[in-house]
Amino acid sequence: MKGKVGALILFMLVFAASRIPGMLSADLANFSAAYALMFCAGVYLSKTTAWWLPLTAMLLTDIGLNFYYSEVKGWDVWTLSQLSHQAFNYAAYAVMILLGRRFKPQSSFSSLLGGGLLSALLFYFITNTASWLFNPFNNPEYTKTFLGWLTALIKGTGGWPDTWQFFRNTLLSGGLFTALFVGAMKYSSAAESAREKEAPEKTESDPEEEPEPQPEEAKA
Question: Is the pTM above the cut of 0.85?
Answer without folding.
Answer: no
